């Protein structure tokens, strides 16, 4: 699962890693919660140009009668994307990548939940497989939204949760973003756990359990 994540980067870093020219204004955010904005990479089906935008984290399917999904669709299971009504249309043609520096998972202790921060060992940004959609009200309000895709946890994460976000490598990103690719098996084969050896996990302050706490200390390692 993924219930919170962090984004601490620069335009130069994004441009270098993801080969994209248009990048909106960004600012570091160390405790992004559902219904807040996520930075998503998408690719034009016409000319293949990559673009990055801010979308609401919590998918609102185009057919929803109301934009308030309860609970918000922040994660989608890789195993059911092709069959679930809320996801199957986006799975065919509205695939994206949410960019993050790392994400949080929790260990349930006797009296509180201890948060851990998970990131790549090489300090690269995480390219998390995502779906997006555009919802419009009868009054003309337009909302672009997205959700993360989760898969079975690797050996590093499974100590605390049985699911983790799908973190794509560069070749997987190329296939996932290509809207001309519509073979279900080819796409599903991309949605596998990132190997444990490429990731690290460490404990962080429990202050970040409150989604309002967005200080940089939220991703700093602590000693237990």
Q: Distance between termini?
A: 24 Å
Gross morphology is globular
**Unreliable stretches, pLDDT < 50, 5 or more residues?**
none
Structural category is mainly beta
What proportion strand? 25-35%
* Largest sheet descriptor: 5 strands, antiparallel
Q: Give, in spatial order, the strands making up the sheet with the most strands.
A: 2-1-7-8-12
- Count of DSSP strands: 12
Oligomer: single chain
Q: What name goes with the CATH superfamily?
A: SOS response associated peptidase-like
Going by CATH, the architecture would be Alpha-Beta Complex
Query: Would you tell me which CATH topology applies?
Result: hypothetical protein yedk fold
The DSSP helix count reads: 4
Mean pLDDT, to the nearest integer, reads 95
Number of domains: 1
The whole-angstrom Rg is 17 Å
Query: Topology as H/E string?
Result: EHEEEEHEEEEEEHHE
Q: Summarize the amount of helix as a percent range.
A: 10-25%
Provide the CATH top-level class: Alpha Beta
